[in-house]
Structure to design on (98 residues):
């Protein structure tokens, strides 16, 4: 189900003229060496907000760590972790600020 939401949310952003990028690659640099492996941010909004999408029974610490890692690597200070597997969507939205 997560992949469906990854298509619907960008469509809504486009309809509302909100600048965004999907599946943005984030290079991983270890001790000054860029690794062959990159991370992928689900959504980057106006180069100011990272959105990580989930469709899980319950958000776990690993999901938070994933978003915080992306935020640190990109130096983007605000992120949203959105779990679409909630009866009321607002209960599945967690905001993070570095």
């Amino acid at each position: 189900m997560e992949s469906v939401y990854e298509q619907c949310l960008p469509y809504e952003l486009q309809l509302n003229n909100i600048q965004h990028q999907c599946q943005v690659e984030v290079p991983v640099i270890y001790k000054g060496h860029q690794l062959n492996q990159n991370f992928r941010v689900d959504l980057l909004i106006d180069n100011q907000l990272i959105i990580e999408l989930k469709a899980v029974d319950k958000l776990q610490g690993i999901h938070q760590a994933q978003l915080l890692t992306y935020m640190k690597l990109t130096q983007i200070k605000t992120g949203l972790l959105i779990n679409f597997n909630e009866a009321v969507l607002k209960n599945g939205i967690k905001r993070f600020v570095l």
Observations:
- The CA atoms of residues 80 and 95 lie 5 Å apart.
- The two ends are 29 Å apart (CA to CA).
